[in-house]
Each structure stands twice: as structure tokens, then as C-alpha cells.
Amino acid sequence: MPVTSTASDTAGLVHAAIEVHEPGQTPGKVGALLDTIEFQLNPKEVTIAKSAKWESKNQKKSASAPPATYQGPEPQKLSVEMYFDETRQRDGSVVKRVEALFQACTPTTSSKDGNKPSAPWVKFKWGVLTGFVGYIKSVSAKYTLFSPNGTPLRAVCTVALEELANEPKKQNPTSGGLQPRHAHTIREGDSLAAIAYREYGDPAYWRTLAEVNGIDDPLRLRPGRIVLIPTLEELSNADDRENARKEIARALLH
Predict the structure, then answer these.
(1) Which of the chain's termini has less CB crowding within 10 Å, N or C?
(2) CA torsion 77→178→231→216, rounded to 10°?
(3) Cα–Cα distances in Å, from 52 out to 5, 69, 71, 164, 212?
(4) Which fold would CATH assign to domain 2-163?
(5) 3-class SS at 106?
């Protein structure tokens, strides 16, 4: 959805900016501020996109479209153009500003020292649009004006940001809450091995998937039955697997 500024009064002008931070210790909460990349000219448009993931499996014998199963939200995406101009500056150059954007796509020194390399987390800030916390997915720079000696004086940068989760992926099992899982509705021709391969990349997980869902005969899956899909971490850990089995059993009873 494009958001366009049409105000002509510059008395209260607020410059858009991208704040560059160290990766945070918890989802959605940024670390220390590393840099602030300000827009020289506020953008004409800011495009924000949000989508959801749905799964629909075709059935040969079905006369209509098969039902879709909600798989969860996709990360929010934000794209914007940044305009840089140093034609009024003596010996000016836009290279430093562009390089700051490129640098935000590489691991921070602190994250590398901690053996957990990660690019910075960023916040897009402009007026009421201050809640987006994510990372820079891509930067494309086009230099549009050069000095006689070849120094770039103007540039247009297309910056794509992607949202970071603002909730933890998994809570302590002893707290009674595990990572939210999605469900799959069994359709004709489904098998646990195929579901395991699609979800985890390994069909061998069909046995564990049957165990946590209380499926006694995996070869006789009844179409319409709902199979809850635990996370791979839950399947790989015995304690988590048992917690997942109990939680799924409670869910099926209700």
C-alpha cells in the first residue's frame, strides 16, 4: 500500500531515516544503535506488503477447489527509494551514504566476535511509521550524476526491508506454552511420510509425527482428520516431544 506525503508546510518537516542497530537478544527488540542513515529527501512512496501462507492440495476426484489450510502469516515487507545528492558540496560524493546501506547487509563486528554472525537489525522511522523492525534484504544503487573526474554525485537506492518476528519462537516448555504450530487436514492420497518430507525435509519423521498425534495406523489416514504439526525442535528433543504429544492430545479433546 503506497503512503504518500502531500503536505506543503515544511515548518514541521521530519526526515525519514533508517536506524541501524546491533541484533537484539530477544525477538523484535533491537540492540545498540550503530548508525542512522537519513533521507536527504523524504520518499514519495513507502510500499508495505503483508501476506499469509495458505496450503491447498489438489484432489483428482474433486469437482471444486479443495479447501485451503491456513499456515500462518508471512513476514511484512517494506520497500522505499532513497535519493542522495551532493552536487552542492565541494568535493562531494554520495558513495559514503550508499556504502552505509551496503554495510547494513553484512554481519556486525560484535555478532562475528560472538560466533553468531548476523547483519544489523534496522528500524524504519518516519512520522507514524516507526513500528517496523527488520533487516535490509536488498539494496540496489543507481548512480545518476558524476563529476568530471568520475565521482558519483547523485544516486537513487532501492531498499527492501523484511520484518523480524516480535514474539519468541519458543517458550520454556515448563511454562506450559510451546511454539504455535499449524495444522494439516488429511486429504485423499495423503501419507505421513509425505507430510513429514514437506514439513521437515525428511520422511523418516513420519513415525514421530504419528506418535505425537496418537495415530495408531498410519496406513489408514481418514480424510478430514486434522494432524497438528510440531516444530522440528520439538520432534528432535524427547522432553519437548512428550510435551507436544500431551498438548496435542488436549487440543484434540477440545
Answers:
(1) C
(2) -140
(3) 28, 11, 8, 15, 27
(4) Elongation Factor Tu (Ef-tu); domain 3 (2.40.30)
(5) coil
